[in-house]
Amino acid sequence: MGKEVPDNGLKGLEDRRGRPRKTDDTFEKLLPPGEKIQRLEAEVEFLKKLLEARKGERRQGRKR
Known about the structure:
By secondary structure, the protein is mainly α. It is about 55% helix and about 0% strand. The protein is flat, with a radius of gyration of 22 Å.
């Protein structure tokens, strides 16, 4: 009648076309611990500044 469809549940619905994507985790694993800490500290500082900037936008009212 039709094609047999394997019963794989949700895993059977995943898109498995093409190459698997590389994540930033791969890059993070290659960094020495000291550089990883510096990178994470810089990311935290950036996010703090971004949060403060967004708080300032709310106080002034956003212009669209």
